[in-house]
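Section 5: illustrative case.
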């Protein structure tokens, strides 16, 4: 066993989020194309008698440090799997937006699994960790895997997708967050009001081809999110942000996941820089990143 372990873990953007019918368990069947981007949190696990968590960084006051913290829940689930009452002090250094549709909490949970597995000398496989991750939340298994992958079921059953080259992104960060369950409920409400029935979701062939071919123009045209209209209804300012990005030449624009972060695909790193500056007039802050990148890794 070692005395301290640090794991770096990426944010994600959903390139396709197709929401199918509501299931008996309260979840929706999804086709969810995850893409890991170079915006990272770090989680350090150190030896301790009990399980505790603290958060560092500008976003620290937005993250719970009690039993609602997903990293603590991950560590507890791992200890339960091992059959022992392990302890650890978890320190989360936040850069991924909180409640921003980029799976920051899920990323921290994945990092805690990897860090505590190494700290406690358990030596579990990625498959074993992924099984624990799936019970914690639909996005947690992808944070372990990284890269680009399609998730089905609740999004937790993953298949990696082939990707050529690197894609450049700008993320427009909004004030406050949006509750994922609230956005899904709004999506259901809008469909019911329109008399629409949710179609069975399928992977977009144009999107898969654009990823495989390294075609940013094609990818920009294929980006899709069934939750976008619901997020806009709950946060009308997102529409102005999306419109501004398109006017500034973004190849594609969409709400990331359940929002309220908006994602813009740029032609190049230089274009991403220009786009990032231009978008600051319509959002709280912007950040540039590229993808795909690996999932949770020891540093």
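Designed sequence:
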């Amino acid at each position: 066993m070692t005395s301290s372990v640090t794991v770096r873990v990426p944010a994600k953007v959903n390139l396709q989020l197709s929401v199918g019918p509501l299931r008996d368990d309260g979840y929706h069947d999804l086709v969810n194309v995850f893409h890991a981007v170079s915006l990272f949190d770090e989680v350090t696990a150190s030896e301790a008698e009990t399980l505790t968590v603290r958060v560092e960084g500008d976003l620290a006051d937005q993250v719970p440090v009690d039993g609602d913290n997903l990293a603590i829940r991950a560590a507890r689930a791992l200890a339960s799997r091992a059959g022992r009452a392990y302890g650890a002090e978890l320190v989360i250094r936040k850069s991924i937006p909180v409640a921003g549709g980029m799976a920051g909490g899920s990323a921290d949970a994945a990092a805690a699994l990897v860090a505590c597995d190494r700290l406690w000398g358990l030596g579990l496989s990625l498959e074993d960790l992924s099984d624990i991750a799936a019970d914690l939340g639909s996005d947690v298994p992808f944070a372990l895997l990284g890269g680009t992958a399609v998730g089905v079921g609740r999004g937790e059953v993953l298949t990696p997708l082939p990707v050529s080259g690197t894609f450049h992104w700008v993320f427009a960060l909004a004030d406050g967050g949006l509750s994922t369950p609230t956005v899904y409920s709004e999506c259901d409400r809008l469909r019911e009001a329109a008399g629409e029935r949710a179609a069975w979701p399928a992977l977009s062939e144009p999107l898969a081809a654009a990823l495989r071919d390294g075609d940013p123009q094609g990818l920009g045209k294929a980006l899709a999110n069934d939750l976008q209209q619901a997020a806009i209804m709950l946060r009308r300012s997102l529409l102005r942000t999306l419109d501004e990005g398109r006017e500034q030449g973004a190849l594609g624009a969409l709400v990331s996941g359940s929002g309220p972060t908006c994602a813009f695909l740029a032609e190049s790193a230089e274009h991403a820089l220009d786009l990032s500056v231009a978008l600051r007039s319509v959002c709280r802050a912007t950040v540039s990143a590229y993808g795909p990148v690996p999932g949770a890794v020891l540093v």
